[in-house]
Amino acid sequence: MSTAPTRVYAARLVGLPIFDPQGDQVGKVRDLVVTIRNDVSQPRVLGLVAEVFGRRRIFVPMTRVTNIDSGQVYTTGLLNMRRFEQRSTETLVIGQMLDRRVTVRTSGGSVDGTVYDVGMEQARNRDWVISRVAVQEPGKGLRRRGQTHTVEWRDVAGLARSEEEQGATHLAAALNEMRPADAANMLHDLPLDRRAAVAAALDDERLADVLEEMPEVDQVAILENLDSERAADVLEEMSPDDAADLMADLPPETQEILLHLMEPDEAEDVRRLMAYVEDTAGAMMTSEPVILGPDATIADALAHVRNPDLTPSLAALVYVCRQPLETPTGKLLGVAHIQRLLREPPSTLVAGALDTSFEVLRPEASKDEVAAHLAMYNLVAAPVVDEAGHLLGAVTVDDLLDHLLPDNWRDRAVRRGEEAGRG
Protein backbone atom coordinates (compact mmCIF):
# COMPACT_ATOMS: atom_id res chain seq x y z
CA MET A 1 0.00 0.00 0.00
CA SER A 2 1.61 3.24 -1.07
CA THR A 3 1.20 6.74 0.36
CA ALA A 4 -2.02 5.86 2.15
CA PRO A 5 -3.40 8.29 4.71
CA THR A 6 -3.04 7.51 8.41
CA ARG A 7 -6.76 6.99 8.93
CA VAL A 8 -9.75 6.71 6.61
CA TYR A 9 -13.40 6.96 7.71
CA ALA A 10 -15.86 4.53 6.16
CA ALA A 11 -18.73 6.96 5.52
CA ARG A 12 -16.39 9.20 3.50
CA LEU A 13 -15.33 6.28 1.33
CA VAL A 14 -18.85 5.43 0.13
CA GLY A 15 -19.38 6.63 -3.41
CA LEU A 16 -15.71 7.28 -4.18
CA PRO A 17 -14.58 6.18 -7.65
CA ILE A 18 -12.22 3.21 -7.98
CA PHE A 19 -9.52 3.43 -10.64
CA ASP A 20 -7.19 0.91 -12.25
CA PRO A 21 -3.45 1.64 -12.78
CA GLN A 22 -4.21 3.25 -16.17
CA GLY A 23 -6.51 5.81 -14.53
CA ASP A 24 -9.74 4.30 -15.88
CA GLN A 25 -12.65 4.16 -13.47
CA VAL A 26 -13.74 0.59 -12.81
CA GLY A 27 -16.36 1.13 -10.13
CA LYS A 28 -17.48 2.91 -6.97
CA VAL A 29 -17.10 2.07 -3.28
CA ARG A 30 -20.37 0.95 -1.72
CA ASP A 31 -19.30 -0.64 1.60
CA LEU A 32 -16.47 -2.19 3.59
CA VAL A 33 -16.26 -5.82 4.69
CA VAL A 34 -14.77 -6.56 8.11
CA THR A 35 -14.47 -9.55 10.40
CA ILE A 36 -15.21 -8.94 14.08
CA ARG A 37 -13.82 -11.56 16.46
CA ASN A 38 -14.57 -9.94 19.81
CA ASP A 39 -14.66 -6.58 21.60
CA VAL A 40 -10.94 -6.72 22.35
CA SER A 41 -9.27 -7.40 19.00
CA GLN A 42 -9.49 -4.72 16.34
CA PRO A 43 -11.71 -5.87 13.43
CA ARG A 44 -9.72 -6.63 10.30
CA VAL A 45 -10.86 -4.92 7.11
CA LEU A 46 -11.03 -7.64 4.47
CA GLY A 47 -11.90 -5.47 1.50
CA LEU A 48 -14.34 -3.18 -0.26
CA VAL A 49 -17.72 -3.87 -1.79
CA ALA A 50 -17.49 -2.15 -5.18
CA GLU A 51 -20.22 -1.45 -7.69
CA VAL A 52 -19.05 -1.98 -11.26
CA PHE A 53 -20.65 -1.61 -14.67
CA GLY A 54 -24.13 -3.09 -14.79
CA ARG A 55 -24.76 -2.29 -11.10
CA ARG A 56 -23.01 -5.51 -10.14
CA ARG A 57 -21.40 -5.63 -6.71
CA ILE A 58 -18.05 -7.34 -6.37
CA PHE A 59 -15.49 -7.87 -3.62
CA VAL A 60 -12.17 -6.01 -3.82
CA PRO A 61 -9.63 -7.36 -1.27
CA MET A 62 -7.60 -4.73 0.55
CA THR A 63 -4.50 -6.43 -0.86
CA ARG A 64 -5.63 -5.17 -4.28
CA VAL A 65 -5.98 -1.57 -3.09
CA THR A 66 -2.83 0.41 -3.78
CA ASN A 67 -3.83 3.87 -2.61
CA ILE A 68 -6.68 5.78 -0.98
CA ASP A 69 -6.79 9.57 -1.00
CA SER A 70 -9.45 12.17 -0.28
CA GLY A 71 -11.38 11.62 -3.49
CA GLN A 72 -10.53 8.25 -5.04
CA VAL A 73 -9.33 4.69 -4.59
CA TYR A 74 -6.68 2.98 -6.72
CA THR A 75 -6.36 -0.76 -7.29
CA THR A 76 -3.96 -3.14 -8.98
CA GLY A 77 -6.54 -3.54 -11.74
CA LEU A 78 -6.88 -7.30 -11.20
CA LEU A 79 -10.48 -7.63 -10.01
CA ASN A 80 -12.62 -10.74 -9.61
CA MET A 81 -15.94 -9.95 -11.31
CA ARG A 82 -17.93 -12.56 -9.44
CA ARG A 83 -20.93 -11.08 -7.62
CA PHE A 84 -20.22 -10.33 -3.95
CA GLU A 85 -21.87 -12.69 -1.49
CA GLN A 86 -21.45 -11.95 2.19
CA ARG A 87 -20.18 -14.77 4.39
CA SER A 88 -21.54 -15.56 7.84
CA THR A 89 -18.29 -14.41 9.52
CA GLU A 90 -18.33 -11.04 7.76
CA THR A 91 -19.93 -7.72 8.70
CA LEU A 92 -20.76 -4.83 6.38
CA VAL A 93 -19.65 -1.55 7.94
CA ILE A 94 -22.24 0.71 6.32
CA GLY A 95 -25.00 -1.84 6.00
CA GLN A 96 -24.75 -3.48 9.43
CA MET A 97 -22.38 -1.66 11.78
CA LEU A 98 -23.88 1.83 11.57
CA ASP A 99 -26.59 2.44 14.18
CA ARG A 100 -25.35 -0.42 16.36
CA ARG A 101 -25.83 0.39 20.04
CA VAL A 102 -22.62 0.40 22.05
CA THR A 103 -21.20 1.48 25.38
CA VAL A 104 -18.19 3.79 25.53
CA ARG A 105 -15.92 3.31 28.54
CA THR A 106 -14.65 6.59 29.95
CA SER A 107 -12.52 7.59 32.94
CA GLY A 108 -15.68 8.71 34.73
CA GLY A 109 -17.75 5.60 33.96
CA SER A 110 -19.51 4.82 30.68
CA VAL A 111 -21.96 6.32 28.19
CA ASP A 112 -24.32 4.64 25.74
CA GLY A 113 -24.69 5.65 22.11
CA THR A 114 -25.01 4.51 18.51
CA VAL A 115 -22.27 4.15 15.91
CA TYR A 116 -22.38 6.64 13.04
CA ASP A 117 -18.94 6.03 11.49
CA VAL A 118 -15.72 4.06 11.96
CA GLY A 119 -12.11 4.86 11.10
CA MET A 120 -9.64 2.36 9.68
CA GLU A 121 -5.85 2.41 9.38
CA GLN A 122 -3.00 0.08 8.55
CA ALA A 123 -1.40 -1.95 11.31
CA ARG A 124 2.30 -2.76 11.43
CA ASN A 125 1.71 -6.00 9.54
CA ARG A 126 0.13 -3.92 6.72
CA ASP A 127 -3.37 -5.24 7.41
CA TRP A 128 -6.15 -2.66 7.56
CA VAL A 129 -8.03 -2.64 10.88
CA ILE A 130 -10.84 -0.65 12.47
CA SER A 131 -9.14 1.60 15.00
CA ARG A 132 -11.63 4.35 15.82
CA VAL A 133 -15.38 4.49 16.37
CA ALA A 134 -17.59 7.59 16.05
CA VAL A 135 -20.48 7.40 18.50
CA GLN A 136 -23.49 9.64 19.07
CA GLU A 137 -25.20 9.79 22.45
CA PRO A 138 -29.01 9.91 22.68
CA GLY A 139 -30.47 13.42 22.67
CA LYS A 140 -31.49 14.81 26.05
CA GLY A 141 -34.18 17.29 26.98
CA LEU A 142 -34.77 19.86 24.27
CA ARG A 143 -31.61 18.93 22.38
CA ARG A 144 -32.34 17.34 19.05
CA ARG A 145 -29.01 15.55 18.79
CA GLY A 146 -26.82 14.04 21.44
CA GLN A 147 -23.10 14.67 21.83
CA THR A 148 -20.72 12.88 19.51
CA HIS A 149 -17.42 11.20 20.38
CA THR A 150 -14.67 9.61 18.34
CA VAL A 151 -12.93 7.05 20.51
CA GLU A 152 -10.45 4.19 20.30
CA TRP A 153 -11.85 0.80 19.40
CA ARG A 154 -10.71 -0.68 22.71
CA ASP A 155 -12.93 1.80 24.60
CA VAL A 156 -16.12 0.57 22.92
CA ALA A 157 -18.17 -2.43 24.03
CA GLY A 158 -20.99 -4.01 22.05
CA LEU A 159 -19.83 -3.92 18.45
CA ALA A 160 -19.15 -7.65 18.36
CA ARG A 161 -22.75 -8.57 19.13
CA SER A 162 -25.60 -8.31 16.65
CA GLU A 163 -28.91 -6.72 17.61
CA GLU A 164 -32.41 -7.92 16.97
CA GLU A 165 -33.77 -4.35 17.01
CA GLN A 166 -30.94 -2.32 15.56
CA GLY A 167 -31.83 1.25 14.62
CA ALA A 168 -31.34 2.67 11.14
CA THR A 169 -31.05 6.43 11.62
CA HIS A 170 -27.47 6.86 10.40
CA LEU A 171 -27.73 4.34 7.57
CA ALA A 172 -30.91 6.05 6.38
CA ALA A 173 -29.03 9.36 6.47
CA ALA A 174 -26.28 7.83 4.32
CA LEU A 175 -28.87 6.60 1.80
CA ASN A 176 -30.40 10.07 1.66
CA GLU A 177 -27.10 11.38 0.30
CA MET A 178 -27.06 8.88 -2.59
CA ARG A 179 -28.83 8.91 -5.92
CA PRO A 180 -32.03 6.82 -5.74
CA ALA A 181 -30.57 4.08 -7.95
CA ASP A 182 -27.46 3.78 -5.77
CA ALA A 183 -29.54 3.78 -2.58
CA ALA A 184 -31.75 1.07 -4.10
CA ASN A 185 -28.71 -1.11 -4.76
CA MET A 186 -27.47 -0.75 -1.19
CA LEU A 187 -30.91 -1.45 0.24
CA HIS A 188 -31.23 -4.53 -2.00
CA ASP A 189 -27.99 -6.00 -0.64
CA LEU A 190 -28.90 -5.64 3.05
CA PRO A 191 -30.12 -8.60 5.13
CA LEU A 192 -33.93 -8.75 5.11
CA ASP A 193 -34.42 -7.58 8.70
CA ARG A 194 -31.97 -4.71 8.24
CA ARG A 195 -33.62 -3.75 4.95
CA ALA A 196 -37.00 -3.50 6.66
CA ALA A 197 -35.58 -1.31 9.45
CA VAL A 198 -33.93 1.06 6.99
CA ALA A 199 -37.07 1.30 4.84
CA ALA A 200 -39.03 2.21 7.95
CA ALA A 201 -36.51 4.96 8.78
CA LEU A 202 -36.67 6.65 5.35
CA ASP A 203 -39.30 9.33 4.83
CA ASP A 204 -42.16 8.60 2.43
CA GLU A 205 -40.83 10.61 -0.50
CA ARG A 206 -37.32 9.17 -0.31
CA LEU A 207 -38.58 5.60 0.08
CA ALA A 208 -40.82 6.11 -2.95
CA ASP A 209 -37.85 7.32 -5.03
CA VAL A 210 -35.79 4.31 -3.96
CA LEU A 211 -38.59 1.79 -4.55
CA GLU A 212 -38.97 3.01 -8.13
CA GLU A 213 -35.40 1.85 -8.77
CA MET A 214 -35.74 -1.61 -7.21
CA PRO A 215 -36.72 -4.98 -8.73
CA GLU A 216 -40.40 -5.86 -8.40
CA VAL A 217 -39.76 -8.62 -5.86
CA ASP A 218 -37.95 -6.16 -3.57
CA GLN A 219 -40.67 -3.56 -3.99
CA VAL A 220 -43.34 -6.02 -2.92
CA ALA A 221 -41.30 -7.35 0.02
CA ILE A 222 -40.66 -3.85 1.39
CA LEU A 223 -44.22 -2.64 0.89
CA GLU A 224 -45.65 -5.73 2.62
CA ASN A 225 -43.47 -4.98 5.67
CA LEU A 226 -45.06 -1.54 6.07
CA ASP A 227 -48.39 -0.98 7.76
CA SER A 228 -51.19 -0.27 5.30
CA GLU A 229 -51.43 3.46 5.95
CA ARG A 230 -47.68 3.97 5.52
CA ALA A 231 -47.70 1.85 2.36
CA ALA A 232 -50.51 3.98 0.93
CA ASP A 233 -48.57 7.16 1.75
CA VAL A 234 -45.49 5.83 -0.05
CA LEU A 235 -47.54 4.83 -3.10
CA GLU A 236 -48.92 8.37 -3.27
CA GLU A 237 -45.35 9.70 -3.50
CA MET A 238 -44.47 7.36 -6.39
CA SER A 239 -45.21 8.33 -9.97
CA PRO A 240 -48.64 6.90 -10.88
CA ASP A 241 -47.26 4.53 -13.52
CA ASP A 242 -44.68 3.06 -11.12
CA ALA A 243 -47.32 2.78 -8.39
CA ALA A 244 -49.65 1.00 -10.81
CA ASP A 245 -46.91 -1.45 -11.82
CA LEU A 246 -46.20 -2.20 -8.17
CA MET A 247 -49.89 -2.59 -7.35
CA ALA A 248 -50.23 -5.14 -10.13
CA ASP A 249 -47.85 -7.44 -8.23
CA LEU A 250 -49.99 -7.35 -5.06
CA PRO A 251 -53.00 -9.57 -4.23
CA PRO A 252 -56.34 -8.02 -5.30
CA GLU A 253 -57.53 -7.63 -1.71
CA THR A 254 -54.34 -5.76 -0.80
CA GLN A 255 -54.77 -3.53 -3.85
CA GLU A 256 -58.24 -2.49 -2.72
CA ILE A 257 -57.13 -1.78 0.84
CA LEU A 258 -54.29 0.46 -0.32
CA LEU A 259 -56.33 2.25 -2.98
CA HIS A 260 -59.00 2.98 -0.37
CA LEU A 261 -56.37 4.49 1.96
CA MET A 262 -54.81 6.67 -0.76
CA GLU A 263 -56.01 10.18 -1.53
CA PRO A 264 -58.94 9.88 -3.98
CA ASP A 265 -57.21 11.79 -6.80
CA GLU A 266 -54.02 9.73 -6.47
CA ALA A 267 -55.96 6.48 -6.27
CA GLU A 268 -57.99 7.38 -9.36
CA ASP A 269 -54.82 7.88 -11.43
CA VAL A 270 -53.49 4.51 -10.35
CA ARG A 271 -56.81 2.72 -10.96
CA ARG A 272 -56.98 4.19 -14.46
CA LEU A 273 -53.48 2.99 -15.34
CA MET A 274 -54.12 -0.47 -13.89
CA ALA A 275 -57.13 -0.85 -16.22
CA TYR A 276 -54.94 -0.98 -19.34
CA VAL A 277 -53.54 -4.20 -20.76
CA GLU A 278 -49.98 -4.90 -19.63
CA ASP A 279 -47.16 -3.72 -21.93
CA THR A 280 -49.37 -1.29 -23.85
CA ALA A 281 -48.90 2.46 -24.15
CA GLY A 282 -51.71 2.98 -21.63
CA ALA A 283 -50.11 0.71 -19.06
CA MET A 284 -46.63 2.24 -19.33
CA MET A 285 -47.54 5.93 -19.69
CA THR A 286 -47.32 8.50 -16.94
CA SER A 287 -50.49 10.44 -16.22
CA GLU A 288 -48.55 13.50 -15.01
CA PRO A 289 -46.72 15.08 -17.96
CA VAL A 290 -46.27 18.87 -18.16
CA ILE A 291 -49.69 20.15 -19.27
CA LEU A 292 -50.54 23.80 -19.94
CA GLY A 293 -53.44 25.70 -21.44
CA PRO A 294 -53.17 27.68 -24.69
CA ASP A 295 -53.02 30.98 -22.76
CA ALA A 296 -49.77 30.03 -20.97
CA THR A 297 -46.60 31.90 -21.90
CA ILE A 298 -43.21 30.55 -22.86
CA ALA A 299 -41.99 31.72 -19.44
CA ASP A 300 -44.71 29.62 -17.78
CA ALA A 301 -43.64 26.57 -19.77
CA LEU A 302 -39.95 27.01 -18.95
CA ALA A 303 -40.78 27.42 -15.27
CA HIS A 304 -42.62 24.09 -15.31
CA VAL A 305 -39.89 22.12 -17.07
CA ARG A 306 -37.29 23.44 -14.61
CA ASN A 307 -38.88 21.28 -11.92
CA PRO A 308 -35.97 19.14 -10.63
CA ASP A 309 -38.35 16.24 -9.95
CA LEU A 310 -39.02 15.81 -13.68
CA THR A 311 -36.98 13.28 -15.60
CA PRO A 312 -35.17 14.69 -18.66
CA SER A 313 -37.59 12.88 -20.97
CA LEU A 314 -40.66 14.32 -19.24
CA ALA A 315 -39.13 17.81 -19.33
CA ALA A 316 -38.49 17.55 -23.07
CA LEU A 317 -42.11 18.19 -24.09
CA VAL A 318 -44.93 20.47 -22.94
CA TYR A 319 -48.44 19.31 -23.81
CA VAL A 320 -50.92 22.10 -24.58
CA CYS A 321 -54.57 21.19 -24.07
CA ARG A 322 -57.97 22.73 -23.61
CA GLN A 323 -59.54 22.57 -20.15
CA PRO A 324 -59.51 20.48 -18.03
CA LEU A 325 -55.72 20.29 -17.62
CA GLU A 326 -55.70 17.12 -15.51
CA THR A 327 -55.53 13.82 -17.41
CA PRO A 328 -57.73 12.86 -19.14
CA THR A 329 -57.62 16.43 -20.38
CA GLY A 330 -59.58 18.41 -22.89
CA LYS A 331 -58.56 18.18 -26.52
CA LEU A 332 -54.79 18.06 -27.12
CA LEU A 333 -53.84 21.07 -29.27
CA GLY A 334 -50.16 20.30 -29.76
CA VAL A 335 -46.81 19.79 -28.11
CA ALA A 336 -43.99 22.27 -27.56
CA HIS A 337 -40.41 21.01 -27.66
CA ILE A 338 -38.02 22.39 -25.05
CA GLN A 339 -35.52 23.36 -27.77
CA ARG A 340 -38.15 25.49 -29.50
CA LEU A 341 -39.20 27.12 -26.22
CA LEU A 342 -35.63 28.20 -25.52
CA ARG A 343 -35.53 30.08 -28.84
CA GLU A 344 -38.74 32.07 -28.30
CA PRO A 345 -39.29 35.33 -26.33
CA PRO A 346 -40.48 34.42 -22.80
CA SER A 347 -43.52 36.71 -22.99
CA THR A 348 -45.05 35.10 -26.08
CA LEU A 349 -47.77 32.46 -25.84
CA VAL A 350 -46.71 28.84 -25.83
CA ALA A 351 -49.52 28.20 -28.33
CA GLY A 352 -47.41 30.02 -30.91
CA ALA A 353 -44.58 27.50 -30.57
CA LEU A 354 -46.60 24.33 -31.00
CA ASP A 355 -45.67 21.38 -33.14
CA THR A 356 -49.03 20.46 -34.65
CA SER A 357 -47.66 17.91 -37.10
CA PHE A 358 -46.82 15.33 -34.43
CA GLU A 359 -48.20 11.81 -34.40
CA VAL A 360 -49.94 10.45 -31.31
CA LEU A 361 -50.17 7.03 -29.70
CA ARG A 362 -53.34 5.18 -28.79
CA PRO A 363 -53.45 3.55 -25.32
CA GLU A 364 -53.76 0.08 -26.85
CA ALA A 365 -50.49 0.42 -28.83
CA SER A 366 -48.06 -2.42 -28.03
CA LYS A 367 -44.61 -1.80 -26.62
CA ASP A 368 -43.11 -2.67 -30.02
CA GLU A 369 -45.34 -0.07 -31.67
CA VAL A 370 -44.34 2.49 -29.05
CA ALA A 371 -40.65 1.71 -29.64
CA ALA A 372 -41.07 2.07 -33.41
CA HIS A 373 -42.93 5.36 -32.93
CA LEU A 374 -40.24 6.93 -30.74
CA ALA A 375 -37.48 5.68 -33.03
CA MET A 376 -39.17 6.83 -36.25
CA TYR A 377 -39.74 10.39 -35.03
CA ASN A 378 -36.55 10.68 -32.91
CA LEU A 379 -38.55 11.32 -29.75
CA VAL A 380 -37.86 10.79 -26.04
CA ALA A 381 -41.57 11.15 -25.19
CA ALA A 382 -44.91 11.00 -27.00
CA PRO A 383 -48.53 11.81 -26.11
CA VAL A 384 -51.14 9.10 -25.63
CA VAL A 385 -54.66 10.19 -26.58
CA ASP A 386 -58.10 8.63 -26.80
CA GLU A 387 -60.33 8.52 -29.88
CA ALA A 388 -61.71 12.00 -29.11
CA GLY A 389 -58.22 13.51 -28.97
CA HIS A 390 -58.10 13.93 -25.17
CA LEU A 391 -54.63 13.58 -23.64
CA LEU A 392 -54.46 10.51 -21.39
CA GLY A 393 -50.76 10.66 -20.56
CA ALA A 394 -47.31 10.44 -22.09
CA VAL A 395 -44.94 7.55 -22.74
CA THR A 396 -41.26 8.34 -22.17
CA VAL A 397 -38.25 6.43 -23.39
CA ASP A 398 -37.34 5.40 -19.82
CA ASP A 399 -40.87 3.98 -19.34
CA LEU A 400 -40.42 2.04 -22.57
CA LEU A 401 -37.04 0.63 -21.56
CA ASP A 402 -38.47 -0.62 -18.27
CA HIS A 403 -40.97 -2.67 -20.27
CA LEU A 404 -38.60 -3.79 -23.03
CA LEU A 405 -35.87 -5.08 -20.74
CA PRO A 406 -36.25 -8.45 -18.96
CA ASP A 407 -38.20 -8.38 -15.69
CA ASN A 408 -35.03 -8.98 -13.66
CA TRP A 409 -32.78 -6.61 -15.62
CA ARG A 410 -31.71 -4.76 -12.47
CA ASP A 411 -30.32 -7.99 -11.06
CA ARG A 412 -28.82 -9.37 -14.25
CA ALA A 413 -25.10 -9.55 -14.71
CA VAL A 414 -23.88 -7.58 -17.70
CA ARG A 415 -20.46 -9.15 -17.82
CA ARG A 416 -19.85 -12.79 -18.70
CA GLY A 417 -17.10 -15.24 -18.05
CA GLU A 418 -16.71 -14.52 -14.35
CA GLU A 419 -13.88 -15.99 -12.37
CA ALA A 420 -14.87 -18.64 -9.87
CA GLY A 421 -14.96 -17.75 -6.18
CA ARG A 422 -13.13 -15.13 -4.16
CA GLY A 423 -10.04 -15.91 -2.17
From TrEMBL:
CDD domains: CBS_pair_Mg_transporter. Residues 354-412 form the CBS domain. InterPro entries: CBS_dom, CBS_dom_sf, Mg_transptr_MgtE_intracell_dom, MgtE_N_sf, MgtE_transporter, PRC-brl_dom, PRC_barrel-like_sf, SH3_actinomycetes. Keywords: CBS domain. PANTHER family: MAGNESIUM TRANSPORTER MGTE (PTHR43773:SF1). This is CBS domain-containing protein. It comes from Nocardioides nanhaiensis. The lineage of its organism: Bacteria, Bacillati, Actinomycetota, Actinomycetes, Propionibacteriales.
